[in-house]
């Protein structure tokens, strides 16, 4: 009942309540992004959603225009405090997670939920093994079990295991725990960056 209906109803209610103040914050951040390098305010990237459907995920742009896409050895996105691809404003947005705010639009559209597994890149579906694709049974989230408890400190395969744990144990109680743990992580800036990297591809993460 909760997984199929109540969770979506709560997403709609809370997203509509948060839309006015979040829109104001996005507007303010957007002005600073534009003033720094005159580039686009938003970054829209393809992500893997529920049932394997690809959707456009919205973020405030934190990197320089046409920045290369650096990856870790496990294929996950490279993050570092001294990442030269970040703009000055983007560095602040990344540390405070303000760059994720436009995903509220994805929640309203039904592409995402407030709480759920963080969405992978579309090509990652080709690397799922055994029951790892089970994470696609639910909507991806703005935050989730991994984001709250581990952020960027665990490898991608371990994140998939944690995603499956979430799908198997999804409940209102667990979602509230993840929500408050996420707030704690954002305030204390836990696990924002990882330090390993590998080859570059193309585009912002």
UniProtKB/TrEMBL annotation:
Pfam families listed in its UniProt record: Bac_transf
Domain Bacterial sugar transferase: 7-187
Record's keyword terms, sorted: Membrane, Transferase, Transmembrane, Transmembrane helix
Transmembrane segments: 12-33
InterPro entries noted in UniProt: Bact_transf (IPR003362)
GO molecular function: phosphotransferase activity, for other substituted phosphate groups
PANTHER family: COLANIC BIOSYNTHESIS UDP-GLUCOSE LIPID CARRIER TRANSFERASE, UNDECAPRENYL-PHOSPHATE N-ACETYLGALACTOSAMINYL 1-PHOSPHATE TRANSFERASE-RELATED
Family named by the database record: Belongs to the bacterial sugar transferase family.
Protein name (record): UDP-phosphate galactose phosphotransferase
